[in-house]
User: Fold Transmembrane anchor protein from Marinobacter salsuginis.
Amino acid sequence: MYNTDIPNREELPSTAKLIRSTIIAAIVALVLLVTVVMPAEYALDPTGAGRLLGLTEMGEIKEQLAEEAAADEAAQMVAVQSPAEQMAPEVTEPVVAEAVEEPARSSEAEVAPAEPEPAPEPEIAEPKWQDEVRVVLTPGEGTEFKLTMEEGAVARFSWVSEGGPINFDTHGDGGGQSISYEKGRGVPEDEGELEAAFTGNHGWFFRNRNDNDITLVLRTGGDYGQLKKML
Assistant:
């Protein structure tokens, strides 16, 4: 049986080398934590490297999924109020109106002046859309669309979920910045304007939480470069 030789004291690393190796390992771990782990897991990108590597968007999606799961769990835990606890509708006594004597009419008929006909209301032209997309989402599936916009630019939008309501998150990112404009759960449709808080990509993340397929129709117009499908 071969026994491994015990190394000499001279062959062992010195205390200074061990300390230096430990410091280098700690620095490498810290760099990986800031540039890779934090953007990918928590959507935190203090250096901007995660956005360049595409890791920050991965972290944002994970955060959205976690928020949706927590909201669904909280909704299931809400107790349904029993019919016995519901307040009985308040019964109001009928009010008997007193008869009011009409004043005696004049023997001579008074001719009321003819009222002018109201002017017809002007027709409001429907907005013209630059882009329209239609996508089918299976149960649990998500998708993301974004507009390339300059700071202060305003885009019009209108979307509808055919087949059931949908969860959405309106947000933006660019230049190391990120923002969440609005979130909604179980919304069948929405329309309005989106003003870019900074130059970058601004748009919507949608997820189908129904038990059946739904069809999402998104229409956009206004001041933006292009409509991109991110996911």
